[in-house]
Amino acid sequence: MGESIRFALQVLTTNLLRTTLSLLGVTIGIMLIISVFTMVDSLEKNIKDSFNFLGSNVVTVNKFSFVNADPNIPWYVYFRRPNNTYAEYEYLNSNLRNASHVTVFANRSTTVKFRSSSMSQIDIMGVGEAYENVYALNIELGRYFSLREIESGRNVALIGHEVAQTLFQNIDPIGKEIKVMGQKLVVVGVLEKEGKSLLGTPSSDERVYIPFKMFTKMYYVGRQGTNPTIAVKGTEDDIGLVNLQNEMEGMLRKIRGLKPKDEANFELNRPEAIADAISGVFDIVGYAGWIIGGFSILVGGFGIMNIMFVSVQERTKIIGIQKSLGAKNYFILFQFLFESIFLCLIGGAIGVFIVYLLTFIPFGALEVQLTLKNILLGVVVSSIIGVASGIIPSAKAARLDPVDAMRAA
């Protein structure tokens, strides 16, 4: 087998022009398939990352369903559903057994000021005690709110990276006062930079977090006011959060006075539902990538097969000589088969390398990455095409009669 490989490599290096032309079809085909899958995977990852603000292993109580809303329920029914209340949050926080953390939050957009500097359209988030545990806030400077600050609703704030850069510039923001809705808030912490997401979903960079009870002093929160969201983080041993969701549904129906036959006037949502819906869409795009690249690979495969037939024809006398000197059929077969596989692997490697170079091109907020999975996909597809394109010419060469082969013109 080693000698067959050596013969195959020698032929490839001897006929460089033919080798180069043979590579084009496979290179283009592999490049198309890998580039499509790389873009699809990168786009899917970036979109899913855009929903990281929804948390993981979390169930939220909302009026609306994130996905798969019941088509039999008119849209206005969802609007008529009651807002969540702080009392419901306290009840769940005290009674849930399948939860690791429970929090409540609400938000409004307004202007934030520090001395003569100001930022408009800043998201003000009123958050409960365990918000940092449910949504994993990364604090760069300072600290999170203390339990006493949360319970008493003190005028303290945790600000995003962009807010800190714009309002304070080169000044240390810790301990300084910002003004929101006429209220003075003392900055106790600054969050790490998060950056912009592909879909422009909310980022902590342009947010100001304050205790929830402080938020209620500034904005009306209740049945007809700002609708707070209750978020519950499950436990690791509750697979699929089935136990948590069942427990939450029972408690919410009880506290809202719903009878067993009454329709629920709330939705229990999980971020994973959005991720699953996104994956379904990108699976379809992936199939389209196979179709687009498949035609190019098919053309490239036939091109290599024709080249291999030509190669067999040119080397018929050499095959006859090799057989007359005792070369076995498998030696001849592997010689041409390895030549075909090497052609496809080299073409595939060039295609993958071109895709790798494309990842350095900036695509705005889209971060493109060539994964090991797609590299291996390129190698596997190239190998399969090499075997499929070379097996028939190789078998033809292996079956040649040595006497007839040596007589060939």
UniProtKB/TrEMBL annotation:
<dbReference type="InterPro" id="IPR003838">
    <property type="entry name" value="ABC3_permease_C"/>
</dbReference>
<feature type="transmembrane region" description="Helical">
    <location>
        <begin position="375"/>
        <end position="392"/>
    </location>
</feature>
<feature type="transmembrane region" description="Helical">
    <location>
        <begin position="21"/>
        <end position="40"/>
    </location>
</feature>
<keyword id="KW-0812">Transmembrane</keyword>
<keyword id="KW-1003">Cell membrane</keyword>
<dbReference type="InterPro" id="IPR050250">
    <property type="entry name" value="Macrolide_Exporter_MacB"/>
</dbReference>
<feature type="domain" description="ABC3 transporter permease C-terminal">
    <location>
        <begin position="291"/>
        <end position="402"/>
    </location>
</feature>
<keyword id="KW-0472">Membrane</keyword>
<keyword id="KW-1133">Transmembrane helix</keyword>
<dbReference type="Pfam" id="PF02687">
    <property type="entry name" value="FtsX"/>
</dbReference>
<dbReference type="InterPro" id="IPR025857">
    <property type="entry name" value="MacB_PCD"/>
</dbReference>
<dbReference type="Pfam" id="PF12704">
    <property type="entry name" value="MacB_PCD"/>
</dbReference>
<feature type="transmembrane region" description="Helical">
    <location>
        <begin position="287"/>
        <end position="309"/>
    </location>
</feature>
<protein>
    <submittedName>
        <fullName>ABC transporter permease</fullName>
    </submittedName>
</protein>
<feature type="domain" description="MacB-like periplasmic core">
    <location>
        <begin position="19"/>
        <end position="235"/>
    </location>
</feature>
<feature type="transmembrane region" description="Helical">
    <location>
        <begin position="330"/>
        <end position="363"/>
    </location>
</feature>
<comment type="similarity">
    <text>Belongs to the ABC-4 integral membrane protein family.</text>
</comment>
